[in-house]
């Protein structure tokens, strides 16, 4: 393990203050340790759950399964979309969910997020809509290998992002199957939930959805707040991650080829998103997300 030199703390602070005006645009110190994986490979990174974490997971898992079937209200919403939309418009649409899988989602929140994603994945393919479900977090807490590499190189100023990204594909857009129980169980593992770098996750999702052939592209972020990563923020200005997220949001909106919005889980979403919905009580997340998707399917026309 790399030892930190306490004497360098003041030097780090001095460099951050004096170099801020000369900072480069947002960047990563290294991308060598970033991962993009299919969800069925998460065990390679996470290993086996601890006994106490497994017990908590089992309790939440039982509650999730007990309330998994779509409600009559959800089915009525889908019927209204089918009636109000042409089959061609629906078949020319892809909906992508980008799930914040950070530490602040621990507890009931992540179970409600999984339930909401499960509902969308189980209902929309029946309309002919393609659905892709992605998640974002980091491989470790407090920077991991990226931060250790920065320390090893002498803590150069303006390091940029210092964490190991973990981007997860929970469901590909061409796979219409409902989630199996083991897939949902992986989604809610507490040891998966770490840091969240929303700007880079949103860039990744936008690249993926732009590769889809459907002309109408709807990208919905499901999150409970602002980006946070201790390692990066300790070595960069405090607004470093937020400013990058705002820039990415503005660029996607300006491009005009993606309908971008977000749903807040318990808290407000970052204000720069074209506001979609907020589930003040996470129990309401599935209803709020489905209502938002239905509204977008009916009102959002395919791109020219």
Describe the structure.
The protein has helices spanning 8-19, 42-46, 51-66, 72-84, 87-91, 108-123, 145-152, 181-187, 198-210, 230-235, 240-255, 285-299; strands at residues 35-38, 93-100, 130-138, 165-171, 216-223, 259-265, 275-279. 43% of the residues lie in helices and 16% in strands. Strands 1-4-3-2-5-6-7 form a 7-stranded mixed sheet, with helices on both faces. The chain has 12 helices and 7 strands. With 304 residues, the chain is an alpha/beta fold. It has a single domain (29-299), classed as von Willebrand factor, type A domain (Rossmann fold, 3-Layer(aba) Sandwich), CATH 3.40.50. Residues 17-21 have low confidence and may be disordered. β2, α6 and β3 form a beta-alpha-beta unit. α6 (108-123) runs parallel beside α12.
How are the SSEs placed, and which strands pair?
Blueprint: H1 8-19, E1 35-38, H2 42-46, H3 51-66, H4 72-84, H5 87-91, E2 93-100, H6 108-123, E3 130-138, H7 145-152, E4 165-171, H8 181-187, H9 198-210, E5 216-223, H10 230-235, H11 240-255, E6 259-265, E7 275-279, H12 285-299
Parallel strand pairs: 1-4, 2-3, 2-5, 5-6, 6-7
Antiparallel strand pairs: 3-4
Helix pairs in contact: 4-12, 6-12, 9-11
What's the rounded overall pLDDT mean? 88
* Biggest β-sheet strands, sense, barrel: 7 strands, mixed
CATH class: Alpha Beta
Number of helical segments with 4 or more residues: 12
CATH architectural arrangement: 3-Layer(aba) Sandwich
SSE succession: HEHHHHEHEHEHHEHHEEH
Q: What's the domain count? A: 1
Indicate the low-confidence ranges by residue numbers: 17-21
The percent range for helix content is 40-55%
The number of strands is 7
Say what the CATH topology is. Rossmann fold
Ends: how far apart?
54 Å
Helix/strand-derived category reads alpha/beta
Fourth-tier CATH superfamily name: von Willebrand factor, type A domain
Radius of gyration: 20 Å
Which strand order does the major sheet show?
1-4-3-2-5-6-7
β-sheet strand percentage: 15-25%
Task: Give the CA-based shape.
Answer: globular
């Amino acid at each position: 393990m790399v030892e930190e030199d306490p004497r360098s703390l003041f030097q780090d602070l001095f460099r951050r203050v004096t170099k801020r005006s000369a900072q480069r645009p947002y960047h990563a110190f290294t991308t060598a340790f970033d991962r993009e994986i299919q969800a069925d490979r998460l065990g390679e990174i996470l290993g086996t759950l601890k006994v106490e974490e497994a017990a908590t997971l089992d309790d939440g898992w039982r509650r999730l399964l007990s309330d998994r079937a779509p409600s009559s209200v959800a089915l009525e919403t889908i019927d209204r979309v089918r009636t109000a939309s042409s089959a061609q418009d629906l078949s020319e649409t892809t909906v992508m969910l980008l799930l914040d899988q950070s530490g602040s989602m621990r507890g009931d929140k992540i179970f409600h997020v999984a339930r909401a994603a499960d509902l969308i994945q189980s209902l929309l393919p029946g309309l002919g809509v393609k659905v892709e479900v992605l998640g974002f977090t980091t491989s470790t807490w407090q920077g991991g290998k990226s931060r250790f590499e920065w320390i090893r190189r002498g803590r150069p100023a303006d390091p940029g992002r210092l964490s190991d990204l973990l981007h997860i594909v929970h469901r590909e857009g061409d796979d219409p199957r409902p989630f199996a129980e083991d897939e949902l169980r992986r989604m809610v593992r507490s040891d998966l939930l770490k840091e969240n770098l929303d700007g880079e996750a949103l860039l990744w999702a936008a690249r993926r959805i732009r590769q889809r052939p459907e002309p109408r592209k709807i990208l919905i972020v499901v999150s409970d707040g602002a980006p946070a990563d201790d390692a990066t923020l300790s070595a960069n200005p405090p607004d470093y991650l937020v400013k990058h997220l705002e820039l990415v949001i503005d660029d996607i909106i300006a491009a005009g080829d993606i309908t971008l919005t977000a749903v807040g889980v318990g808290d407000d979403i970052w204000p720069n998103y074209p506001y979609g919905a907020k589930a003040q009580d996470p129990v309401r997340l599935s209803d709020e997300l489905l209502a938002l998707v239905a509204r977008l399917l009916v009102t959002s026309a395919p791109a020219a």
